[in-house]
Q: What sequence folds into this?
């Protein structure tokens, strides 16, 4: 298990160093702000929805390694997928990181999370759970927050 932990740690550090989709979207349909005052993590997230497909996603901001790598992994996982799939993945991720310390998490539950499984260990650090879930909460907020259309005609 310690070898696996080491692998996971490297994955988190790598995403923190080179976050995926770390960009502001020029053309977007939805966006939201995510802020975790307990740690100082602050990100903005942009989505481009085509029907119910998340065709593009980007985020910018700053925060701890856990929050940034989680945001990076989240964007990589949901880009190109449907809104329903993204919400389902969030539920799976959330149930893993909220598993009580001491309770066993079935290995297949972590495996089906892909890279996000690397964050399963945060459940042992309650303060870090907010860091790990921040980008997801911002994603959900963005999904229900369409961009305001500014019109010169009104
Ligand atoms: Zn944090």
A:
């Amino acid at each position: 298990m310690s070898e696996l932990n080491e692998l996971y740690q490297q994955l988190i550090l790598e995403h923190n160093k080179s976050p995926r989709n770390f960009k502001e979207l020029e053309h977007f349909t939805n966006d939201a702000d995510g802020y975790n005052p307990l740690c100082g993590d602050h990100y903005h997230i942009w989505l481009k929805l085509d029907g119910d497909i998340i065709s593009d996603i980007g985020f910018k901001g700053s925060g701890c390694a856990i929050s940034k790598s989680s945001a990076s992994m989240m964007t990589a996982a949901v880009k190109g997928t449907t809104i329903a799939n993204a919400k389902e993945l969030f539920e799976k991720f959330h149930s893993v990181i909220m598993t009580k310390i001491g309770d066993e998490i079935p290995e297949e539950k972590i495996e089906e999370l892909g890279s996000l499984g690397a964050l399963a260990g945060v459940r042992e650090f309650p303060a870090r759970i907010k860091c790990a879930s921040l980008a997801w909460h911002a994603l959900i907020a963005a999904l229900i927050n369409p961009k305001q259309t500014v019109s010169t005609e009104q």
Notes: Strands lie at 30-36, 41-50, 53-62. The helical segments are 2-17, 65-78, 83-97, 107-111, 126-143. The pocket of zinc ion is lined by residues 36, 39, 41, 63-64, 66-67, 131 (CB under 6 Å).
